[in-house]
Amino acid sequence: MAMNKFNVFHWHIVDDPSFPYLSRTFPQLSQQGAYHPYTHVYTPADVKMVIEFGRLRGIRVIPEFDTPGHTQSWGKGQKDLLTPCYSGSKPSGTFGPVNPILNTTYDFMSQFFKEISTVFPDAYIHLGGDEVDFSCWKSNPDIQKFMEQQGFGQDFTKLESFYIQKLLDIVATTQKGYMIWQEVFDNGVKLKQDTLIHVWKGNKLQYQSEMANITSSGYQTLLSTPWYLNRISYGQDWTGHYQADPQDFQGTDEQKKLVIGGEACLWGEYVDATNLTPRLWPRASAVAERLWSDKGVTDINDAFNRLSVHRCRMVERGIPAEPLFSSYCPREYRGV
Amino acid sequence: MEAIMCMLSSGRCTPTHLYLLLLIIIALGFHTVEGVWPLPQTVTTSPERYPLNSQAFYFGYGRQSAAKPGCSVLDAAFKRYFSLIFQDYTSGNGPLRFNENKPFTVEVSVDHDDCESYPNEDSSERYNLSVYAGKAFLNAETVWGAVRGLESFSQLVYQDEYGSYFVNKTEINDFPRFKFRGILLDTSRHYLPVTAILKTLDAMAYSKFNVFHWHIVDDPSFPYQSSTFPDLSSKGAFHLMTHIYTQSDVRRVISHARLWGIRVIPEFDSPGHTQSWGKGQPDLLTPCYRSSTPSGTFGPVNPVLPSTYQFMTKLFKEVSSVFPDSYIHLGGDEVDFGCWKSNPDVRAFMQKMGFGGDFLKLEAFYMESIVNITSALNKTSIVWQDVFDYHEQIPKDTVLHIWKGTGYKAELSRITKAGMRVVLAAPWYINHITYGQDWRNSYTVQPLDFSGTDEQKKLVIGGEVAMWGEYVDATNLHPRLWPRASAGAERLWSDEQQTSSVDKAFPRLQDFRCLLVRRGIRAEPLFVGHCKHEYQGI
Prior knowledge:
The structure holds two protein chains of two kinds.
Chain A: E1 8-12, H1 28-33, H2 44-56, E2 60-67, H3 74-77, E3 82-87, E4 90-98, H4 103-119, E5 124-128, H5 135-139, H6 141-150, H7 156-172, E6 177-181, H8 182-186, E7 196-199, H9 204-216, E8 220-223, H10 238-243, H11 253-257, E9 259-262, H12 276-280, H13 283-292, H14 300-316
Helix pairs in contact in A: 4-7
Chain B: H1 2-8, H2 15-28, E1 42-52, E2 57-61, H3 72-85, E3 104-110, E4 127-132, E5 135-140, H4 143-156, E6 158-159, E7 165-174, E8 180-186, H5 194-206, E9 211-215, H6 231-236, H7 247-259, E10 263-270, H8 277-280, E11 285-290, E12 293-301, H9 306-322, E13 327-331, H10 338-342, H11 344-353, H12 359-376, E14 380-384, H13 385-389, E15 399-402, H14 408-417, E16 421-424, H15 439-443, H16 454-458, E17 460-467, H17 477-481, H18 484-493, H19 502-518
Parallel strand pairs in B: 2-3, 3-5, 8-9, 8-17, 9-10, 10-13, 13-14, 14-15, 15-16, 16-17
Antiparallel strand pairs in B: 1-7, 4-5, 4-7, 6-7, 11-12
């Protein structure tokens, strides 16, 4: 990252499949929720080391604790956190998103985010808020009752907003700013003015109009949609990443100023340490130039020549960045 | 005992038997023998398990074995497989284990003493493996079959949660469905260091691949250092010192492959794909013309000059002696006629030969000459399907390599109908990456699903998984190749009916992938999940 002048490490540290973050306040979360409680966890010392390693390179570390969806692994170590799904009138044994109607949920979140705000020094925390599946909430009679009481009818986006609102208020008391995925904005949740909204969905036209909407509402925004590097394909796909411009949408100069940047994402369904580095580099370098350099730097052929040199430079420095095309690096294979 | 017998003969289990069996399974931590990848032809297993202790574990030669101590292939295999089986082994004293030092011996018997030879197209890889208390019997016709059996045995051994090693009572009778099961590596688009090639050979052996198709030279670079024509690499390699394969590098690859029972088939592709050849061999390639003057660029090998065939004869003479396999791949694909057409000498030659304006005839003339050269050297040729498609007259024992993606089933029919043997690569171009679990595409290929008689189907001698090098070098070779290539490996080794379910294959392939990682192969993940022992590098 530092070789490419990236300056933010967005650590999507926990999600459905596993919870590797060892929490001092709730050690059961990783005890029960990690793939293995010792070999597959990040201890407080590990986290400190990552943060310091980043700091020395001028890289901010922003953790993401994504809720209320994407939380299956949280429920292993924290009973009653997730919503029990029902099949008919009986619990089915499976669980859904975080349960938004219990006070214990918010007590937990308060304590949890209090810890997070002290562990991670950056001013921002990413709170997720994406892809919430409503079917489990719908099946649960207690939730149905709550919906009625609150006057939400059958509109579960209102319940989602209810949860997010309370969560954002909790996090705000820890003096942190927050980043959230675009759904939270799309669903009309009331956000603090300094919220960063993270755009990840849609085709080009859709994300361009989303950027326009968000900035016209006065929020700062971050683009990721065209930069999902986990989506691999055959050939030189870096060219597509290189051409995407986060300020390329219909809007005023004031709006464009609200685009604070972008983020290349390498989601982990098909990625681990065996293939992480070649899959990330040098494709992420195309994004790096788009985010650092002047918007007029767009010549693809020139970029190819320079990126080839840059790729060999990374290889020589011990980063196994994959090749762009047939060729060689003069000083490769020293360590492979 | 009744419960165990009930397991082996399905259908006669009462609920109490099943419950008891379940208890036994849970108590013994039953490890399914479908942990062998590729799936053996027949496998019978039992929950009865035997402890293994690295301090008292032995490989031995059976009394009736034709291969004896001193057999290079098996001695090396025993050493390798000991470490592969006991991953935690350190040569000091291990921690005290509280089971008795029950010795376990794997007794290997081989019918033919072929230890010092190279595996060939007809080598039997059949083996049977019987695992009992304290002893396993591995019988095979050849040492190559024994190596396959050792690989299966190594995959039967597992550890419980305390790290103790076990192997279950097992009976395996196994042989490959197809005799030719290959991997193609391209060392011209990107140079691959010898270590990367050796590592690939190791991973190939774990999946029972038995042919390494070395596409060693092509347009971008010529890394093969020829003793007869040293300028080919000194002028044609990416770098004449750091990006070449010396004769000793080549020997190293061939001998490493031999110990794994892997054949090495080199490809010197011509007349197309030869740009790099022209750097060190002036007058080899056809000069292209722009109307009546040479344009400065060059095209395919020049088929009209006698010097071309003198050169090829000398080169293939060297290649034939350097590479011991009886097969040699001559390429013959994707010849662009534009340059030949532009050259007046070539056109004149066409007239003289009565080819008219049909450049296919010229290509045929060239390929036939090359095949004759290699036939005279006692080699069997493999060529790309283009050679057949262009109606070239080639010896009946030439093998055709099917690579074109569209209509490969029709091609299979056509070529086998003409009585020629084929190797299928078309559905296994795994250099073509896509997002998601594309190993399933490799797994569900049905190589014999084309219209033809049984006799025709017998002519499909096997298949090949290809990793072309345009976007691949040692930084990303291993994760791109494994475990996706292993899906093709099972298709080529195992019985198709027993391996038709992708859903059943998934957990087995996940486990196999973790085994590869444990053995130091950077096999990428299939999906979300984890391995007990993760890859520790960057």
